[in-house]
Amino acid sequence: MPYVNIKITDEGVTREQKKQLIAGVTEVLQKTLGKNPKTTTVVIDEINVDNWGMGGLPVPEFRETLKQS
């Protein structure tokens, strides 16, 4: 009974894209590990970029450093 938690930023991911993520992850678990798709749970958490950090900075500030490189 696999449980997969996907965390993404909340930047315009569509319902269709989420549907594809859920189906794709479920399929990978079935093909790779032989898991039953009917008992596979996939949860998508959308995180505001101000609540997500990389390189010691909130994502918006981190992205600014990439632009300067």
Automatic annotation (TrEMBL):
The keyword Protease does not apply. InterPro entries: 4-OT, 4-OT-like_dom, Tautomerase/MIF_sf. Its EC number is 5.3.2.-. Gene3D superfamilies: Macrophage Migration Inhibitory Factor. It is an enzyme of class 5 (isomerase). GO terms for molecular function: isomerase activity. Belongs to the 4-oxalocrotonate tautomerase family. This is Tautomerase.
